[in-house]
Amino acid sequence: MKIATYNVNSINARLPIVLRWLKETQPDVVCLQELKAIQENFPEQALRDAGYDSIWHGQKSWNGVAILSRVGQPEEICRALPGEPEDNHSRYIEAKINEIVIGCLYLPNGNPAPGPKFDYKLRWLDRLIAHGQSLLDQHVPVILTGDFNVIPTEVDVYKPERWTDDALFRPETREAFRRLLAQGWTDALRRLYPDETIYTFWDYFRNAFGRNAGLRIDHFLLSPMVTPRLQSAGVDRQVRGWEKTSDHAPVWIDIT
């Protein structure tokens, strides 16, 4: 089963890109982030015509997450990360597909840091860690994937010295990500490619994509019941080079 994650940076603005990518690569399950569309404006029919059933949680102007499947209707479990009932950002949706629990997330950016947005990011990470532990305690196959807005190590960013004060790379952010991994999650791309330069995001400015001045911030975390099933993984880098595309590229894994 091929599972992909893709921060589309506006589902309706990028719909031709998404449909082309789906047709060319044919993932079985897709997690989308940054829909930037209210619930009623999600292109459900266009995706169904492409062969995908969908669940989604939209929000006006920003955020928004969705799970698509061509291997059975996603069975929605929840559409909010527990722990902060007053948080109304559309940043998490969870479903079961083929007996695998899949959590699709769009973690807060957190800039400028320090400040209220960074505090929210750290609280969100704490909530994700708590929820991650509750998922592991169920002893079922789980995949957490999406745009984590976390640069885990210096290997994951072009010129790391320029990012020391950024919320994506601050010590507090990376330490929280390490705490999450320490629960027993496996970073799928690093398991297969421990030392390679792999980026998933390139800014629109300063010819970042052409210079390969990127970041790795879109991740797949696998629970212990999924990790042995990992066969391959990669980044559809070519999609970032298409006209009017997102600043992220799709990331995927294949599991048995």
Automatic annotation (TrEMBL):
Molecular functions (GO terms): DNA binding; double-stranded DNA 3'-5' DNA exonuclease activity; endonuclease activity; metal ion binding
Alphabetic keyword roster: Hydrolase, Magnesium, Manganese, Metal-binding
Active site: 106, 147, 248
Site positions per UniProt: Important for catalytic activity: 218
CC cofactor note: Probably binds two magnesium or manganese ions per subunit.
Site-annotated residues for Transition state stabilizer: 149
GO biological process, any: DNA repair
Protein name: Exodeoxyribonuclease-3
Species: Parapedobacter luteus
Species classification: Bacteria, Pseudomonadati, Bacteroidota, Sphingobacteriia, Sphingobacteriales
